[in-house]
TrEMBL record, chains A, B:
Origin organism lineage: Bacteria, Pseudomonadati, Pseudomonadota, Alphaproteobacteria, Rhodobacterales
Enzyme Commission identifier(s): 1.3.3.3
Record region (Disordered): 37-60
Superkingdom to which the source organism belongs: Bacteria
InterPro entries, alphabetized: Coprogen_oxidase_aer, Coprogen_oxidase_aer_sf
Keyword Oxidoreductase: yes
Name of this protein: coproporphyrinogen oxidase
Pathway as given in its UniProt record: Porphyrin-containing compound metabolism; protoporphyrin-IX biosynthesis; protoporphyrinogen-IX from coproporphyrinogen-III (O2 route): step 1/1
Keywords: Heme biosynthesis, Oxidoreductase, Porphyrin biosynthesis
Pfam families associated with the record: Coprogen_oxidas
Length: 292, 292
């Protein structure tokens, strides 16, 4: 049976792969160029790369760097998975998107990149970026986002991050940035704490205008925005000394991040429910976190 | 309007209160009698006690000890809450118990005690105990359980813990222990990791035989079993020295505990969804946890 979407799927998964390569290279370079300031005397961090497997179809590549000069732990996962959605996943999707026919033909295909970085320096925010393409016989869509999670926020860093995301969104539609920024404010909100998990960014899901090329190009640009949004602030903060109190604030903020990730994050739920490698799905968890 | 259940509610909440007093006293005594071995030179831990509030009805008492000789962090919460169940909580309950009329009259009342202890010594298991009474105009029930979470398991400790739970269950019905042990094995299973979170114990919910006195007496005995089940093993292990590798195993095991707690625990979900004080609901979180 020919798959009329074969070409789009191949292009999407190849793009996520190349974006991964670009980010991994840039992060290793950030490690190597950190030659003065805190932790500059330890070996530059390198990514460990390992394949991941989903028992019922597909897999990916997990790249993790631990204990570097700049990154305490950063994971960059790419995966392409397929098979049939479980009844639970079908109803979650149907509730959100109203896809008739899902129960009769529950096939799906999904490919994406997902990144979470927990930094050594409490002055540098933790950061998350994720983009993905989802396909079913009943429709396709893109989703993703990027958000900044400082425990010690700097207005300059927040403004720069948002400005870069906005510039990349504006190439596609001036309505995208305000809409997807507002969506991030809603999505990255921690209801039981009554607060945002960080200083926001953008979030979009179920993005399907009918024009696959345009939506793919937008999704690519969200990925392309990541390094220019994050690297300048990471370079600016990596030499700032920190106190024990700063470290304490960072570990407590990671507790909040872990709560969000396990209680509310869609990608985590989807990954665990669909039987993807738990170590890959939970690569986003902080290396060390505290609770009061 | 007289509440025909007023007396039972008062007796249940008074019982949870007195059980809390008994446990808090025993735990402070365990601190004071730890006079040789690791950390015996630090001040004996004491509980900090504070009231907790649920904005839409009720509250409780949170008792937390941190950084003691034996306990790294232990929380003992009691609460009595009431009001109306949210539509989400109604449907969760209806799905589980099939309570017709919940939507027409969504009032509820719940009272209980909940305890989680994270120990200093990696040779002593983390432990959880919880019992509660739930009332709606459409029915009442009890729930609870207790389970042991060692990172370095000792067969002797596991056997003693289970034997004490069994003896207390057997006073009521010889079928209870095997049934509720099996339920704990199912309930405290971490599906995404394909493993149990610990070495089990007992778990029961929706327990309502029709005889309130009998079900309350059973629930009291589950609470009464806790100290004789846990104290002997805590006394046995508290002087065992530990290595850095033991501490590493403990922190990693706490990561698993945190995952379970945020992803699957019913009490956590119920507490957060019904708007109880998040610091009280999440008092069960480990003081420090790691992820690989």
């Amino acid at each position: 049976m020919t798959d009329p979407f074969e070409d789009q799927k191949a292009r999407a998964s190849a793009w996520f792969h190349s974006l991964r390569d670009e980010i991994v290279t840039a992060f290793e370079s950030l490690e190597q160029t950190h030659i003065t300031g805190p932790l500059a005397d330890r070996p530059a961090g390198r990514f460990d790369v390992s394949p991941t497997r989903r028992d019922t179809g597909g897999g990916g590549v997990m790249s993790v760097m631990r204990g570097g000069r700049v990154f305490e732990k950063v994971g960059v996962n790419i995966s392409t998975v397929y098979g049939e959605l479980s009844p639970a996943a079908q109803s979650a999707m149907a509730a959100r998107r109203g896809l008739p026919g899902m129960a009769d033909d529950p096939r799906f295909w999904a490919s994406g990149i997902s990144l979470v970085a927990h930094m050594q320096n409490p002055h540098t925010p933790a950061v998350h970026m994720n983009t993905r393409m989802f396909w079913t016989p009943h429709g396709w869509w893109f989703g993703g986002g990027s958000d900044l999670n400082p425990c010690l926020p700097y207005d300059e860093d927040t403004a720069g991050f948002h400005a870069t995301l906005k510039a990349h969104c504006d190439r596609h539609d001036p309505k995208y940035y305000p809409r997807f920024k507002a969506w991030a404010d809603t999505y990255f909100y921690v209801p039981h704490r009554g607060r945002a998990r960080g200083v926001g960014g953008i979030f979009f899901d179920d993005h399907s205008t009918g024009d696959w090329e345009a939506d793919f190009a937008f999704t690519q640009d969200v990925g392309r925005a990541f390094l220019p949004a994050f690297l300048p602030l990471a370079e600016r903060r990596r030499t700032t000394p920190w106190s024990e109190a700063d470290r304490g604030a960072q570990l407590a903020h990671r507790g909040l991040y872990a709560e969000y990730n396990l209680l509310y994050d869609r990608g985590t739920k989807f990954g665990l429910e669909t039987g993807h490698d738990p170590d890959a799905v939970l690569m986003s968890m902080p290396p060390l976190a505290t609770w009061p």
